[in-house]
Amino acid sequence: MKKLILLACAAIFSFLLTACGGNDEQASADGSKEITIGYFPNINHVAGMVAEEKELYSKTLPGGTTVNYKYFPDGSAFMTAIETGEIEGGLVGPGPAMNHFTSGAKINVVAAGSTGGTVIMARKGTNIETPEDLKGHSFISPRVGCTHDVQFETMMKEEYSITSKRIGGTMKHVTGKPATYHRLFKTEKVDAATVPEPWASVIEEKGSGEVLVDTKNVAYGQTLPAAVFVTSQDLVENNPEMVQNIVDAHKKATKFIQDNPDKAKQIAIKKIKEITDQELSPSVIDNAWERINFTYKVDGDVLQDFANSSYQLEFLKEKPDLEGLVNTSFIQK
Questions:
Q1: CA 105, 295, 115: angle at the middle one, nearest 5?
Q2: Lowest mean pLDDT among 41-45, 111-115, 240-244
Q3: What dotted CATH number matches 26-117+223-312?
C-alpha cells in the first residue's frame, strides 16, 4: 500500500513538473514548438517582413515549429516583450537594446538588420531652414532615448550646442508613432521630427515637411545599425540551436533583400499596409530605400560609441559598458 502511494505521488509530481516546467519557447501537446518573432513596420525592419512573407523561420527551424509574429510601435514595448518571454527574438533599434542591457536586461544582439534611414524633418511654415533654427521649437521622436532621438540630440548638442528642455535646453520633446508624423505636421502639433524611414519619405511626398538633415549627416547616420536582432541570453545559453536557426533565417532574408530589391520593396509595401493600414506608394519606398543599407553584420565598437553618447545626453544614469551585449558567433556560421 505504501509503495502504491509513493508511486502515485511520484506520478503526480512528474505531471506537475511537466505542466509547470518549460523553456522560453512554448511546447504544444504533440511536442511541437511555438515561437514568436517581433519587428516594427519600418523600412529598417524589412528583413523581418521578408522572413515572415517567405516563411524563412519555418524553413530553418525544426519541422513542426509554429512561428508567430508580433508588431511593435516602439522599442520599449519590444524590449519588455523580450524580457518577459512574450517573444523569442526580433528586430529593434539599438537604443532600446543598449538602454535595457545597461539596466540589467539579460539580452544579446546576435545580428544587425540595417544601417541608415534616420532623417531630420522640419514642418513647412515654421521658417526652420537650418538646425540652428530649432532652438525653442518642438520635435518628436518615437520614444525618449530611442535610437532616432539619440542620433538627433547628439547631432544638435555636438554640432550646434542646442539641447532639449530635459537637460536644460530650449527644445520641447514629444513622442509619438512615426506613422502619425505627417498628420502632426499638417495639424501643426510639432515643428520638427527625427524620423525613421519610410515615414520621412511619406512626409516628403505629401508635402507637409522638408528634409532638414539627411541620413548621412545625422550622428552615426551611416555606421550605426538602425536595427539589431535581439534575443535573450537564456535562449542563447540553453538553446543555441534555435538561435542559430533563427539567425540563419534572418541572414537569408537579408540576402534576399540584397539580391531582389524590387521584390523586397513589394513585400514591404504589402506588410506595412497590413500592419499600419497605410499603403505606401512605390515612389516613397524607392526614396526610402536609397537611405538604407541592409546588412546582418554588427560592429560592437559602434554600439559602444553610441551608448556613450546616450550617457552624455543623460538617457543613461551610469557610463555604459556593453561588454557581453553583442554575440557575433551566430552570424559567422
A1: 70
A2: 41-45
A3: 3.40.190.10
